[in-house]
Write a structure and sequence with these properties.
The chain is mainly α. The protein is built from 14 helices and 2 strands; from the N terminus they run ααααααααααβαααβα. The protein has helices at 10-24, 26-35, 44-58, 65-70, 76-89, 96-124, 129-145, 154-163, 177-182, 201-212, 227-238, 243-248, 253-265, 280-283; strands at residues 218-222, 270-274.
Length: 284
């Protein structure tokens, strides 16, 4: 049974708006299909409508309101009335991106609430942390995989560039001038450092992390090297103490004074974390 529009229900109202935009505006439809999944709709009739429209779109079939109605069999007359009312209340499609975001946010909150309720069952049942951890890691991984993806047309991207063409550019420095001149690292970039074994990847990464930690909070996750050995490498690099003297325990009094001065003057934010055995959700 397809219900009439439930005026006054905020979730229903915004979901109706998104459905109306899907059928009224091609750009709005493409954005919704790229950023939402049927499960994001809390109202069952809106979920079913979006699911059918999305399935038709993915199959290369027409996904207009009349075509979608045909897939509802005996309920198509009631659906036509519902979509007609939705169409009449869809005055503008200018804010379709914001409306999709609202639907996605409401869906995320609902999922988090469900995860919290299930976690409480573990607590009430006196479960141990080792018993709860797989559940929480699995649920958070699912939650993260449902995060909103950004979808932007090339034309919109060009307009954004023109609007911000004179804005100052901010890049994250590595502290090594030749690299910073040719490699422009922005926030959100994923940078892979690759080389043969034992050529200095870890030492280089530590040097970059140390430099960046003066401007940012930096976490260095190590899957092979202990935090103690990482610290020894940092000392050798930043205090100009020969690494061999450090690992052999033959540092001089001058070396130790250099280390003390470096420790007292350090104003950066670098955390070293032994990550052996950690999963991706645990690191997140």
């Amino acid at each position: 049974m397809i219900n009439k529009i439930n005026i006054g229900n905020p979730d229903f109202d915004i979901e109706c708006q998104v459905i109306g935009e899907v059928f009224c505006d091609t750009e709005a439809a493409l954005y919704a299909f790229s950023n939402l999944v049927p499960e994001d709709f809390s109202m069952m009739q809106m979920r079913r409508i979006f699911q059918v429209a999305l399935r038709r779109f993915q199959a290369g079939m027409p996904y207009d309101a009349l075509s979608v109605c045909e897939d509802f069999g005996s309920q198509k007359q009631e659906l036509k009335k519902l979509l007609y009312n939705i169409g009449m209340t869809t005055i503008s499609t200018d804010n379709y991106q914001e409306h999709c975001r609202l639907v996605k946010t409401a869906s995320a909150r609902k999922r988090m609430s469900e995860i919290a309720d299930e976690a409480m069952e573990y607590v009430v049942g006196n479960s141990t942390m080792s018993e709860m951890q797989p559940f929480l890691a699995n649920q958070l991984e699912k939650f993260d995989s449902c995060s909103t993806r950004k979808c932007e047309s090339a034309v919109d991207g060009m307009q954004y560039y023109l609007d911000h063409i004179d804005d100052p550019r901010e890049y994250i420095k590595t502290g090594i001038d030749p690299i910073d001149k040719c490699l422009k690292i922005s926030r959100g970039d994923y940078v892979v450092l690759g080389a043969r074994p034992s050529v200095g990847k870890t030492a280089f990464a530590l040097q970059v992390a140390w430099w960046m930690s003066f401007d940012f909070n930096v976490a260095f996750f190590s899957f092979e090297t202990s935090t103690q050995k990482l610290t020894e490498r940092i000392i050798a690099n930043q205090c100009f103490v020969p690494f061999r003297r450090i690992i052999e325990g033959n540092t001089t009094e001058m070396d130790r004074e250099s280390i003390r001065i470096a420790k007292e003057s350090a104003r950066n934010h670098l955390d070293l974390i032994e990550a052996s055995g950690m999963t991706v959700p645990e690191i997140q």
